[in-house]
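Section: protein folds

Sequence with per-residue tokens
===
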Amino acid sequence: MMKKCGVKTKKMSSPLTLELAKIVCDTSYYGWLINYAQLSNMIAIKNKVNYDEMWSFADEIHKYLGNRPKMFPGFIGGHCVIPNLELIKDDTLNLIREINSDHAKILKKRKARGKKY
């Protein structure tokens, strides 16, 4: 059905492989990228430097290597990244949730003071 609609498909060796691929290699990886943005933003805030200016350093590297994507350091909400952590019944990736929670507290304090992320 998906192929008929023009969606690229790939058969995996088992349903477990497919689910772990979705959770570990897709949504959790995306969460780690956002977490890194959150962590680098917390460092920028602590040192009173501009997050965007700091990340501009990686623009040239990303242009050639394609491995330094600048992410927005916002709160991870929604229906995929955090809820999918519960599906694998493994504490290995709990740090994603913890960093997200810590960053949310910082954002809340900054918002109360009328400051940008």
Q: What stands out?
A: The radius of gyration is 17 Å. The mean pLDDT is 91.
